[in-house]
Amino acid sequence: MKAFKSYKWFIIFLGVVFYPTLPQLHAQNDSLAMDQEGIYPGYVITNSDDTLRGYIQYESASANQLEVTYYVSMNREETRHTYKPGDIKAYHLLSYTFVSVSFSGKYSSRNKTFMHRIIDGPITLYEWYFIEKQQYFEDNDMYGYDPDASYELTYQVQLFAQKVGENPVNLNSSKFEMRFRTAMSKYVVECLELAKKIKNREKRYTHNYIEKIIHEYNACNLK
Question: What is the pLDDT of residue 82?
Fold first, then answer.
């Protein structure tokens, strides 16, 4: 039993030590790992649909939504190019594709951003990342403002759906989270059977199964 416990803690130790160096995914929703910084093989898709293969620099999920650095040759500064949304159609690294989408997010001065594409089809599903500041209070100050309180920056993820020719729709908005049955059944109304399952709250047709619903809608529209 002792040997098993020692082995177990050894495995945990290895995971803690080497985790930041590995390109991993969050287990829950396949979001990009936030500590995946590095330069990876990838490619850029230009606005004229040319594919430029090379290397993509990944800084963080939120930073890579604003711009991307592309290298023709790895670590050769003279081959370095920086693209903003609108400069290119998309870029790809590892198994992830970021697409230039007409969406400003929290940046009112921007009209486009790179969004992580999860599903492609008649409805495309994206993840959008943002940083949220959380303040920690002392027990006796938890109901007041403390300028000296500690802060922690945490990554948040929201899901956006986009039909062809339409603007992205926030599936984490109060409209969809509080009234999912009504809002989502209307959004997929072109597929009557699917809309009916959502409206009737059938098993696995709730907000927790967004990806399943999008896949089913896309299959319906591709028939």
Answer: 96
Q: Look at residues 119, 125, 116 and name the one whose alpha carbon lies nearest to residue 58.
A: 116
Nearest alpha carbon to residue 35 among 44, 23, 52:
23
State how far the alpha carbon of 29 is from the alpha carbons of 7, 157, 172, 208, in Å. Answer: 29, 10, 14, 10
**What torsion, rounded to 10 degrees, do the Cα atoms 47, 92, 25, 172 define?**
10
H helix runs in 70-209, sequence order: 174-178, 180-187, 192-199
pTM value is 0.75
> How many Å apart are CA 43 and CA 166, to the nearest integer?
27
Q: Which residue is listed with tokens 């995946």? A: 36
Cα 66 to the center of its chain, rounded Å: 13
Q: Which of 110, 113, 93 is nearest to 32 (CA)?
A: 93
Q: What does the mean pLDDT of the chain come to?
A: 80
CB 88 within 8 A of CB 46: yes
Q: What is the CA radius of gyration of the chain?
A: 21
Q: How confident is the model at residue 37 (pLDDT cuts 50, 70, 90)?
A: confident
